[in-house]
Every structure is written in structure tokens, then in C-alpha cells.
Design brief:
Helix content: 55-70%
Main location: membrane
GO molecular function, one term: monoatomic cation transmembrane transporter activity
Number of helices: 24
InterPro entries: Cit_transptr-like_dom, DASS-Related_Transporters, Na/sul_symport_CS, RCK_C, RCK_C_sf
Strand content: 5-15%
Pfam families: CitMHS, TrkA_C
Strand order of the largest sheet: 7-6-8-5-9
Largest sheet: 5 strands, antiparallel
GO cellular component, one term: plasma membrane
Amino acid sequence: MLSSGLITISIVIILVIVLYKDLLRPSFAFLGAVFILLVLQIITPEEFLMGLANKQIIVIFLLIGLTSGIQQNIGTGFFFKIFSQKLKPGTFRIRLMLLVSSLSAILNNTPVVAFMIPYVKEWTKTNKFPASKFLIPLSYSTILGGMITVVGTSTNLVLNGLISQFGYPMLGFEDFLYLGVLVATIGMIYLSIASNYLLPSREENKSEVIDHLNEYLVETYLPMDSKMHDKTVKEAGLRQLKEIFLAEIRRGKKEISPVGPNEILQKGDKLFFAGNSEAILKLIQEENGLSLPEDGHVSNYGFFQLTEAVVPTSSSLIGLKVKDSDFRNKYQGSIISIHRNGTQLKGNIGETKVHAGDLFLMLTGKDHNRNDYYKDLIIVTLRGEISTDRGNLKRLPSLLALAVLFTGIIGWIDLFVAAFAGILTLYLFKVLNLQTLKKAVDLDLLLILVCSLSLGLALNKSGAANVLVNLLIQMTEGSGVMIALVLLFIMTLILTSLITNAAAVSIMFPIALELGNQLEQPLTPFFVAIAFAASGDFMTPIGYQTNLMVMGPGNYKFRDYFIIGFPLTLIYSVVVLCFINWYYL
């Protein structure tokens, strides 16, 4: 038992390192860890497959589908009525935080942030304020709001899934409501005051690129005697170029982007290349039929359709080189710049491996549909997509779906039934269809959640949790239950700063369970402690997907999260632990 426990602990440590260093795609890392546990017979295939039938995991995907339908139905004009252009920045920030914290209490918070980023950027651009003063508050307030209910964050549902899997009573509506409202209120008060002083006033990445557009794009044209006339792009040798790519062709008033390999070149075409400008000039010097115009138009921003997009943690692009992803054909756009961790990447874009959180600045065609690839790329540039207000009657399907969901949240009906009924309501009103639901299913997320449950089971079954708890009890011997709870909370908080919150709560669950049993205490305060600690990642961008999503659009650096997040973490921790001590012990 001891050897299998130490092996399990070692596997978990290796998994944490792999996730922290981004050595493998998260879903593959989890799957690899669970595969080793299966081979070593620490868990059985039947125990692994139990996760696929876990009701709370299925509820997560029902909620994601429900959120997708509500977003489509609610309309964009609604948000611009709330966010008047005449608002003062402080008032705008408070309204923003109140709205998204309320939404994330009943809807999955990741889509809420994805939906709101373009509106925040549009408002800040119109009013000439830096988006960096508002996007971290957007992320943090969704995290805080998500703690108000069991459905607000997948962390709570994963935890309840583990609790039910082990046969204990699940956390209820009141276990999240009172403490969730308290930390959300105190956290938003802090953010409304501290954001002006602790967040940077930083220019957005797109502005930097636009100001130096000639460094990214070079305009050429085909003169009347060009050798490339009547040749396809591939025949002209412009398809597989080193360090550069053909981003767009302008033919009279027609714009061709992205450019396919079989596009036939014609005299007078204007060809726009992106990449290493020196390599582009070298191409022209080879006298192959390209020339530089006397009067170029590259500096005219209005000529191009520049679009920003963030790579989410669920993207199938992660780990691939751009050149191997068939990006231009698949996503109808060409990448001209990549920003990562607040800095612009140098070198050949085609050779760049995609990481979660990367911000792409793309040249896209005007007819591209952002909904075609929202799972792989989250578009953060609003492109004149403000629709008129739909009116309350047309929002009726969403209101009905939310009403049904609310009955599940407060426990009047089963949450699974409520989420299912909400989906069915939107389907009957033709707001949702099977295609939209299919797009909402994220296989990577499913693997991570199912594997997380298996890890928690392995830690308990192998005796690893018992080993760790014995060490914890020895450290706190004679100090009382509250000190043990504080250490449990801190351990979970550190872990969730390094890896995903779902993984953190799965790893810490068996430790919380064993700790409560050995101390002969009610288990609820231990479960509440790890639930709130696992969602309390305010110091890093990597532990919570919403933090990673706003990093590129806000042009944030790693230290920005720590500067504003460390005081918030202290406040959050004190409030949570004091409440648990007062309410449960």
C-alpha cells in the first residue's frame, strides 16, 4: 500500500511539473498520468470509466451548451445599453464587475469572459482608456461570482462529483451562497479601488503593430511584364516561403485573403507579404516578377481587416507549429504577429509552436465567421457586430431557461434535470440546434475532468492521501482543527496557482476527506475550504483559464497578476477562513 501510495504521489508531482512547464497539452498529460495508474493497477478500467458516467461532469457540459444558446439569444445591443459611452471609468468598472459576477453565478464563467472581452476593448478604445485597467477586474470578478453557486465554476461541480462518487452528501446551495456573496462583494470593492493604482496603463498589442505596420507587412505588385502573370501562387513559388508568407492580394477593389495555393496571379495585382521584411526584400531582388510600388498603402490601417484572437486552453492548435496547422485555410486568416506573456515573439511565425494564452494578430477576410472556430480561437476584436436591442420578448427563451436553471441551483429540482430542461427550452424555441451543441462539446475538457476524478480516486485508494495527511497532522499536532484547515487551504491555493483549478481540487479532495476523518470532524468545512481555495487563483495567469484569456488582450505581464492579486489573495483567504471557522466549527 505504501509503495503504491508513493508511486501515486510521484505521478502527481510529475503531472504538476509537466502542466506548470507546459511540456505537454494538458489533456494528454492527464491521460498519460491515468494510463500509468491503470498499467500499475492502482486504479481499474471500471473506476476510470466511472468518471464518464458522473452526473456532475455531464452537468458541466449541459451548462456550457446552455450558456452558448443564451449568448446567442440575448443580443449584443443589451450590453451597450448597460455600458453607456458616457460612463466614467470607475462607474464602468463597477457595472462591468457587477454584471459579469452575476452572470457567472448562473452561467459557466469562461464563455462569459470570452463574450465580454470585445465589449470592454470597444468601450475603452472609444473612450481612450487603456484596456489593461479593466480586463483583470473582468476576469477576477467572474471568478468571485462563480463561487456564489455550485454551477458558477466547474471546480464546484467537479468537487461535488468526487463527493458523490465517494458516497458522501454533496455541498448544497447554502454552502456556496453566503460565503460566495461575501467574498464577491469584498473582492469587487477592493478591485474598484486598487485597479487604478496597481494595474498598468499599457498600450494594446494591436496599436503597437499598427504603429509599425511596415515592419510586419510589405506591399509589392506585379508589373505588366511580370513573369508571374497567369501563374498560380504555387507555380510562382510563393506558397512555401521561408520566414514570410503571402497574406493578401488586392485586385482592383477586390481583396483576397487568405490566399489559396491555386489563386491565379494577374498583372497589376498588389501582393502583401507578412513576416521578416528583409526576407521579403530579398525575394524581390531575385527579379522573379515582383516590384515595390512607389507609393505604398501598407501604412493605411483601414485597408486591412486586422483581428485579434486568443488561444484558449482547449484549443486544438496548442503544441502545433503554425505551418503545420493549415491555419490560413482552416481559419480564413493569416497571422502577422504573436504575443506571449506580454511580449511579442520574434522569428519565423510558421515555425512557432502555439501555446495556450497566445494572442494572434491576424489579417482576415471580411466574410470570415468568428463562430466557426470559437473553440480553437477566441476573437477579441469587435468588428461592427453591434446588433439592435432584441427586446424582452425575443429574450424570452433565455429568461425561461435561466428560470428553470435557477430552480435547480436552489435545490427545488435536480440540477441535472434543470440544466437539461434549459437546453430543451432553447432547442424548442430554435435558439439552439444540434450543430451548436456539438461545437460546445470540448473533448479536451472532458478528458481533463474525467482524469481528474481518477487521480482523486487513486490518491485515496493507494494510501497516498493517508501519507500526506499524517504528515499534515504531525505538523499541526496539538494546534487544533482550524490550523489544519488553514494549511489545507494554503496547500490548495499554491497548487491552483500552478495547475488548473479542476486538477487542484481533484488532487486535494482525498487529502481533505482523509484529514476530516482522522480529526473526527464534519467533512463539509474541509470540502468548502478546498472549493474556495481551488478557485482563488488571483496571483498567476495560468491556474484559471479566464486569467489566461485576458492576458494577451490586456497586454499584461506575469508580474501584473501578482501585484494586484497578492493583496486580493490575502483578503480572500482571511475572509474565507474566518467564515468557515464562524459558520461551521
